[in-house]
Request: fold
Amino acid sequence: MKSIKDDCILFSIGGIGYALLEILWRGKTHWSMAVTGGACFVSLFKFYEKHKKMKMPAKCIIGSAIITTLEFCCGCIVNLKYKLNVWDYSKCRFNIKGQICPFYSMLWAFLCIPVSALCKKLSDIKSDS
Reply:
């Protein structure tokens, strides 16, 4: 039961953080971004916790791949299937279906630096309790 509670807390942190980041970047957000952010943060936390000794460049590359994959899945559902038009990267070079592109994947990689530090802090707190 504690694991479900921990995952809900992580999901909330990620959802709120992702939505706030998007508001700072674009000036707006959508509820689907909070869901995606929550899923990303839980996934990153579990990955980083399992691979504590991994070097930061590898954490950033894999973290970016995790975020980009989840963003692509979300985009295919909310933008392509349900036509909610939450975002559109079709004008970015090398985009895939207008849902992901290398530029944002690179930004996710840089975002993984502070996210990794936050995950370590939360993991330490979790270990202490």
Summary: Residues 94 and 102 are 7 Å apart (CA to CA). The two ends are 15 Å apart (CA to CA). The longest helix spans residues 102-128. DSSP finds four helices and no strands in the chain.
